[in-house]
């Protein structure tokens, strides 16, 4: 494991239960954590562990939520957010300030610093930058991941494809915030184990996550779930 790395991918869906069933069948994930705290944002959710990474579904429970507005813009269920684990809070805050990116959420606990960036400053998704203590813990995965790294099953996120209007420009913005170099329209994370690829869409289309790649032992193939192509390979990571 090398930082920075992708820890959580989030989709927004109107029907949480149907989306959860589809993810469970396709990826073999199970026993989601339901965070009651997201009710503050007018949402309900389900967070699935895949190895030591996570896939979350958020579903609006009231009008005028950020997730609901994204669903409306996209014309249906869609990719919504991605969360990265980084090594240094001060360095991360400095890069955010140097990039001129606005924070829409800044929350700190003894075990994690959680920074959410404004999507107008960081196109393609709501991007969250998280610094954990200890490294590898992840309180958003539930109590057993809070301030500790439990034993877990193999598997894990391998990357994303994000559709944007200017792929190389956006790759540079994301790479600068993460503190990594970019190669054209691709960002390489976790020592080469993960990639974030940016692809073009016309100016009339909504910028969003369009693909999630994952390793899930015993499962393979592609399926569109919540408007996102989930590409699964039968391979384990620990």
Structural commentary:
It is a single chain. By secondary structure, the chain is α/β, with parallel strands linked by helices. The chain has one domain: Roll (2,3-Dihydroxybiphenyl 1,2-Dioxygenase, domain 1), CATH 3.10.180. Helix content is 18%, strand content 39%. The protein contains 4 helices and 14 strands. It has helices at 16-27, 66-74, 89-99, 167-178, and strands spanning 5-12, 43-50, 53-60, 78-86, 103-109, 112-117, 126-132, 156-164, 182-183, 186-189, 194-200, 208-215, 221-225, 228-233. Strands 2-3-1-4-7-6-5 form a 7-stranded mixed beta sheet. It has a 7-stranded mixed beta sheet with strand order 9-10-11-8-12-14-13, covered by helices on one side. A hairpin with a 2-residue loop joins strand 5 (103-109) and strand 6 (112-117). The longest helix is centred in the first third of the chain and has 12 residues, at 16-27. The radius of gyration is 16 Å and the shape is globular. The termini are close together.
């Amino acid at each position: 494991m090398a930082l920075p790395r992708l820890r959580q991918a989030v989709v927004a869906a109107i029907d949480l239960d149907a989306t959860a069933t589809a993810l469970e069948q396709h990826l073999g994930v199970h026993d989601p954590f339901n965070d009651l705290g997201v009710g503050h944002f007018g949402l309900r959710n389900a967070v699935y562990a895949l190895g030591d990474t996570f896939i979350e579904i958020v579903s609006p429970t009231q009008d005028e939520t950020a997730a609901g507005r994204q669903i409306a813009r996209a014309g249906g269920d869609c990719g919504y957010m991605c969360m990265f684990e980084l090594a240094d809070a001060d360095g991360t805050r400095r890069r955010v300030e140097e990039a001129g990116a606005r924070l829409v959420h800044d929350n700190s606990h003894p075990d994690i610093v959680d920074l959410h960036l404004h999507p107008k400053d960081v196109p393609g998704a709501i991007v969250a930058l998280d610094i954990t203590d200890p490294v590898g813990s992840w309180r958003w995965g539930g109590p057993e991941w809070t301030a500790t790294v439990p034993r877990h099953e193999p598997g894990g996120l391998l990357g994303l494809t994000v559709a944007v209007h200017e792929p190389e420009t956006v790759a540079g913005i994301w790479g600068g915030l993460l503190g990594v170099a970019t190669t054209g329209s691709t960002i390489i994370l976790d020592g080469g184990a993960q990639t974030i690829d940016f692809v073009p869409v016309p100016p009339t289309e909504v910028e969003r996550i369009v693909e999630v790649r994952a390793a899930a032992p015993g499962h393979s193939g592609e399926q569109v779930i919540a408007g996102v192509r989930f590409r699964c390979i039968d391979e384990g990571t620990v």
